[in-house]
From TrEMBL:
The organism of origin for this protein: Promerops cafer (Cape sugarbird)
Residue segments, region Disordered: 39-58
Bias type Acidic residues, positions: 43-53
Pfam families assigned: Rubis-subs-bind (PF09273)
Name this polypeptide is given: N-lysine methyltransferase SETD6
Residue ranges constituting the Rubisco LSMT substrate-binding domain according to the UniProt record: 4-121
Lineage of the species this protein comes from: Eukaryota, Metazoa, Chordata, Craniata, Vertebrata
One of the GO BP terms on file: methylation
Predominant location: nucleus
Length: 129
């Protein structure tokens, strides 16, 4: 369901791997009984039209059913915990000209990428609350 990378791609305004995330949330939030029924009815194929009409924009994410929101919220928290430093520490480093200039060019680029990723994840947390 998640694809080769095993991750979902989030942008500022929407989920870029919306089909994978939508299907994953749907399946993970099903009861065992619902999952068995869904699988027996070849539900995997029947949802294509429904999913074509659903875009996981930020607004749509905020309207997810409670179990899906909680699952996604907890997943975002786990992802944020996997980073070495929090958003504030990254922001402080970006704002500290002396410390920033001591970083190699590669470290500076990595800092910008991590900071951007964390900002998107924090935005997602706010949407899901």
């Amino acid at each position: 369901m998640v694809g080769e990378e095993g991750a979902f791609v989030l942008g500022w305004d929407e989920v870029l791997t919306e089909e994978e995330l939508s299907m994953t949330l749907k399946v993970l939030c099903m009861s065992e009984e619902e999952f068995k029924e869904y699988k027996e009815q070849d539900g995997w194929e029947d949802d294509s039209e429904e999913e074509e009409n659903s875009t996981l924009s930020n607004e749509a994410l905020s309207r997810l059913k409670t179990p899906c929101k909680k699952l996604l919220y907890d997943s975002v928290l786990l992802t944020l915990e996997s980073y070495g430093a929090d958003l504030k520490a990254e922001q402080d480093l970006l704002n500290n000209k002396e410390a920033y200039e001591k970083l190699s060019r590669r470290e500076q680029q990595a800092l910008h990428v991590r900071y951007g990723q964390k900002r998107i994840l924090h935005q997602l947390l706010e949407l899901l609350q």
